[in-house]
Amino acid sequence: MSRAFLVVLDSVGCGNAPDAASFGDAGSNTLLHIHEKVGLKMPNLMRLGLGQAMGIDAPAAQGLHGVATEVSQGKDTPSGHWELSGVPVPWDWLYFPDATPSFPPEIVEEVARFCGTDGILGNCHASGTVIIEQLGEEHMRSGKPICYTSADSVFQIAAHEESFGQERLQALCQHMAPMLHAMNVGRVISRPFVGEDAASFKRTKNRHDYAMQVPSPTLLDWAKADGRATYGIGKIGDIFSGRGLDETRKGFDDALMVHLSDLVDEAPDGALVFANFVEFDSLYGHTRDPEGYAAHLEWFDAEIGRIMAKLRDDDLMLFTADHGNDPTWGGTDHTREQVPVLAVGAGVKDIGQVMFVDVAASVADYLGLSEHGPGRNFL
After folding, report:
1. For 90-100, what is the mean pLDDT?
2. pLDDT, tens only, 290-333
3. d(Cα 198, Cα 193) in Å, to the nearest integer?
């Protein structure tokens, strides 16, 4: 049986979302603006048709290529990944106001009660790397957790792995998740960091997302119900709360690339591998670093070229994204964009504009699964 590898380049959008203006993002275009500012050398994905997806002059594509549009009313990780797996979000997320304080008193009080402190730090919209530089030392002195949010439906808690404790941070996030999920907040995210002072603080790989449960079966569930082996790479296990997965492999992006390479070697016939590479978003999009973003794209392209060379003749490897995060845009938040859809193992085809749910339907049909959801097969 054929195998499928669904690879999400987190936040690698290509602009032109029809409803971008309603999100304040008209004109945003992650890939095109990076290319215009820095220049991109990505021969492997360009060969598949990335240039066509970006709308730039490029040699004739040698793979399947197009763009996908989202219908869920969010520009965040759960909305994008759930819809790519066949389940558009059926409700409106709660977003905290871009004000200080951002959070209602009952949330602040419950965090402080659990921690035994007289309050929290932050209580605002912020970049995660910036806020630990600003408040990390005070956090270590006072023991108060740093709580912040963004334009996404998230409640994030940053704490020092040693002075506050990694297990204590995870327990706090687990404790707060039901309360926040009941309010339709999509994720509670633990953001552990280490270091001695503002100059040396650094987030660690022990992040954990406590996401709301997907409201109906996804591509992962469909595969598992048909007896297929299913693997999550990166934060896929967190996004889907472990549902539909036999195994999850985590780490920073360089380790995730090794996991993907290993699974190309090891995954059994009929397997589904669902991967997310997050550092485009977390390290370079939110910090508005187009040079770093470009370098990471070029690193990914070089590494994925070596992995694609190992694919079997009947393997499908499909590349896409969950939203945009234009590093040349104002603010620090995600941008509402269409996303590229590229594939090796599906012939040469221009699929034009498709929907996020069509990705799930296409992968499901390629694997011969019993269910393929509301989308259509563009393969």
Report:
1. 92
2. 999 999 999 999 999 999 999 999 999 999 999 999 999 998 88
3. 11
